[in-house]
Design goal:
Structural class: mainly alpha
Number of strands: 0
Low-confidence stretches: none
Strand content: under 5%
Largest sheet: none
Number of helices: 14
Shape: globular
Helix content: 55-70%
Mean pLDDT: 88
Number of domains: 1
Radius of gyration: 21 Å
Order of helices and strands: HHHHHHHHHHHHHH
Length: 367
């Protein structure tokens, strides 16, 4: 199936948001950092949560494409497909641990070696999702909801053991180190729901009849995503509103409501982008390369943007910070455009991981 601009735009916007969020966190004068509570609260669904969500969408589309490839290609089997998927997951997992290790050395904190930064969360989500990809969409939705229920119960209980050297303390460390990042039980649901949306997009793209496609798009994509998104946002926002302008917005008491709000917002955003693309409200023949570069190099860029840490560390106020943030994002876009023209996939970690995965998975046993 064709490359969807909607997914590239979503991932590109998510990557820009992550960069901007980091720059605010790193560059803002500490006395003014609380001024960005609303920014973090209302739009953070586009960042890490959205990135995990869209990873689920693209993973399912890739999986379904490979299932079709197994049917029509003699030398490509289900076993090879499984090996490719798992090897890719473990390679990203290794990259996540390597990144964590570098951060641990940088801050002289060995506990960071296992911390739920986004790369580790995506990698573990990939590995956990494998046995669920063949299940029905309704079953994955049920599992996703159940995980959030279990997550809230476990978090409430295990929080009392944070920092303790016992079974429950270690379990808290494994599942929730640390709460200001992307703990797996909170974020795996985004990945699973993303696979459901990926299923719908693939089924829609596989249709050939225009009338049937329009009917499917309205009934199976627009209606459920719109209703689900509005219900999730409106319900959760009611509970989040009292804390929206305070530093309590992401406490344990609002954790589940923030997750629900974020999922609803992700559903609405992907729906809007799909509508814009399907009904040619924006011209899909145009490149939209600026966001495409941030999407194409998203994994590389997540590592690269850490160089921003020391540029203006805790030096900027609430006003002048935006000049530097906008300039930095534009410069990154120009740089990525230059790199794409010169190196294309050679600079993309995702592409290189894909090449390594294919080479390992399809290597003859006797070689």
């Amino acid at each position: 199936m064709k490359r969807l601009k909607s997914i590239d735009i979503f991932r590109g916007v998510g990557m820009v948001y992550i960069m901007v969020g980091h720059m605010i966190d790193w560059w803002i004068i500490p006395s003014e950092d609380q001024l960005f509570n609303v920014y973090v609260s209302l739009f953070s669904a586009i960042g890490a949560a959205g990135f995990v969500f869209i990873s689920g969408v693209s993973t399912m589309i890739s999986y379904r494409n490979r299932v079709e490839k197994v049917k029509i290609t003699a030398n490509y089997s289900t076993k090879t497909m499984r090996k490719e998927y798992l090897i890719r997951g473990f390679l990203i997992f290794g990259l996540g641990l390597l990144y964590n290790g570098i951060v641990a050395i940088q801050f002289f904190d060995p506990s960071v070696i296992w911390k739920w930064f986004i790369i580790l969360t995506v990698a573990v989500s990939l590995l956990l999702a494998w046995p669920l990809l063949k299940t029905s969409k309704l079953f994955r939705i049920f599992v996703a909801a159940l995980i959030w229920i279990v997550n809230q119960i476990l978090l409430t209980y295990l929080l009392h053991f944070k920092g303790e050297v016992n079974f429950f303390g270690v379990l808290f460390y494994i599942l929730y180190n640390s709460l200001d990042q992307n703990p797996i039980l909170s974020f795996f649901t985004f990945f699973l729901i993303g696979t459901v949306i990926g299923d719908l997009i693939f089924d829609f793209s596989a249709l050939n009849d225009d009338i049937e496609k329009k009917r499917f798009f309205k009934r199976k994509i627009i209606t459920p995503l719109l209703i689900s998104g509005v219900v999730l946002i409106s319900t959760s926002f009611w509970f989040l509103l009292p804390n929206l302008f305070t530093d309590k917005i992401l406490t344990i008491n609002t954790n589940t409501w923030w997750l629900i709000y974020s999922l609803g917002l992700d559903l609405i955003i992907i729906l809007i982008l799909l509508i814009l693309e399907e009904y040619n409200i924006f011209n899909t023949k145009r490149s939209y390369k600026f966001l495409f570069y941030f999407s194409y190099y998203s994994l590389t860029l997540f590592l690269l943007q850490n160089l921003n840490y020391l540029l203006f560390f805790e030096l900027l106020d609430r006003y002048n910070i935006w000049y530097f943030i906008i300039a930095t994002v534009v410069l990154y876009g120009i740089f990525l455009r230059f790199i794409y023209k010169k190196l294309e996939g050679n600079f993309s970690l995702k592409v290189q991981i894909g090449k390594i995965t294919t080479k390992i998975a399809r290597k003859p046993r006797n070689s």
